[in-house]
Amino acid sequence: NAADKGAYPFYMLKEIDEQPAVMRRLVSEYLDADGQPMVEEQMLADIADADHIYIIGAGTSYHAGLVGARMFEKFAKTPTTVHVSSEFAYEQPLLSAKPFFIFLSQSGETADSREVLVNVNKNHWPSLTITNVDKSTLSREATYTMLLFAGPEIAVASTKAYTAQIAVEAVLAKALGEYLKSEDAKDFDLKHELATVANGMQAITDSKDKLEEIVSHYLSKPRNAFYIGRGVDWAVSLEAALKLKEISYVQAEGFASGELKHGTIALIEKGTPVIGIITQDRTAGLTRSNLEETQARGASILTIVSRHLAKEDDTVILPDVNPYLTPLLSVVPAQLLAYYTSLGKGLDVDKPRNLAKSVTVQ
Ligand code: G6P
Questions:
Q1: Cα–Cα distance, 74 to 339 (Å, whole number)
Q2: Among 46, 128, 257, 321, which residue's Cβ finds the most Cβ atoms within 10 Å?
Q3: Cα distance between residue 227 and residue 234, in whole Å
Q4: According to its UniProt record, which residues of this chain constitute the active site (predicted)?
Q5: Global pTM?
Q6: Residue 237, C-beta contacts closer than 8 angstroms, at least 6 positions apart
Q7: Does residue 158 line the site of ligand 1, with CB under 6 A?
Q8: Which helix (H) or strand (E) holds 70?
Q9: Catalytic: 357?
Q10: Which among 335, 303, 308, 304 is positioned nearest to 321, based on CA atoms?
């Protein structure tokens, strides 16, 4: 039974471990033998006809949107912005002439996102819901649906739905780019990349013990912590910090590493954990300098780094993958760090206080 915890103490750990299998499942659901995306043609025509993609989501789904937007712009050359649904619903920005809406929602039931979709439908704008739950409200009410095929996600803190959302966005970006004849999309060998991602995720989850040990040294006591990065590493920092907050109640912030010096660095004290995510060539050196600035003020620094950028004393080294897909790997150690911090404090990892898996009130 897919919803059975088996030998796992908590669903969250089971769901973290399921991520390589979810990646492989998505390859078989969405890519043919030649690696070409299998996506509804009419939907591609509708998106190709649009001049702007608006991604709408809440919580972890919003964070998955931040990663996806970069791929729609790179591979499909379509301007894309990402919006928190509870904000967009009540303060809609000035829209482009031909908008296309993508709703990201694990449950497909989030009331804030639905509020936006109701208005989208009133205006007869085309839309797609990317969700884990077939026939959920957001799926039924949108023009198109793409499923996450992640299997039931029971733990309140979302893990495999986040990585599945990013992988499905990659499929869509590739499909749309091919439809629009973009060279970048043609060169994006997603089938190969997702296989590499799956193996890389497996390698990270196989070395859990190391992450548990890191937690006991650096994360078990502090009341606050920072994840920092630039670009897509910043987007992952937001999700990484949210995991830590949700289940271990550490006041964590995901921060653009270059922005830290403009105020927030005042919060760094002796022993404050600052975790740098470093996967992008252009910004690796800059984030390293920003980490050193916090270290000079007493921070305990940790790093999550892509192999080709790694140095001897980096904490977690990630297998190399296409730079647009590094979030699929860099988030996994962060999920495990959050898990072990919560576990070490004796908290109910799967059912953190004050939170619900699906929020159906605005
Ligand atoms: C709740 C959950 C979060 C989730 C958010 C959006 O707050 O606790 O984990 O990210 O809702 O949910 P959705 O189902 O729309 O992705």
A1: 33
A2: 257
A3: 8
A4: 357
A5: 0.98
A6: 227, 228, 229, 254, 255, 277
A7: yes
A8: helix 59-76
A9: yes
A10: 308
Res 196: pLDDT: 98
What pLDDT is recorded for position 1? 66
Integer Cα distance of 106 and 209 in angstroms? 29
Q: Given this model, what pLDDT does residue 360 score?
A: 87
Give me the pLDDT at residue 214, please.
Answer: 96
In angstroms, what is the span from residue 150 Cα to ligand 1's centroid? 15
The amino acid sitting at 303 is T
Q: What radius of gyration, in Å, describes the C-alpha atoms of the chain?
A: 20
Q: Which residues contact 127 (CB under 8 A, 6 or more apart)?
A: 100, 101, 102, 103, 117, 120, 121, 142, 143, 144
What distance in Å separates the CA atoms of residue 229 and residue 238, rounded to the nearest whole number?
A: 9
Could you tell me which residues are beta bridge partners of residue 84? 57
Give whole-number Cα distances, 78 to 74, 81, 92, 220, in Å.
Answer: 8, 10, 20, 43
- The pick from 67, 107, 148, 242 for probing ligand 1's pocket by mutation, whose C-beta has the most ligand atoms within 8 angstroms, reads 107
Give me the helices (H) in 217-354, please: 232-248, 281-295, 327-344
From 55, 60, 141, 355, mutation site for ligand 1 pocket: most ligand atoms within 8 A of C-beta: 60
Ligand 1 in reach of 238 Cβ (< 6 A): no
Whether 86 contacts 114, CB under 8 Å: no
pLDDT, tens digit, 9 for 90 and up, residues 241-291: 999 999 999 999 999 999 999 999 999 999 999 999 999 999 999 999 999
Residue 104 alpha carbon to ligand 1 centre in Å: 10
Of 333, 337, 63, the closest CA to residue 204 belongs to 333
Q: What is the enclosing helix (H) or strand (E) of 147?
A: strand 144-147
The conformation of residue 135, written as its DSSP 8-state character, comes to T
Tokens linked to 275: 């975790």
Vertex 362, ends 16 and 95: CA angle to 5°? 90
pLDDT less than 50: residues of the chain: none
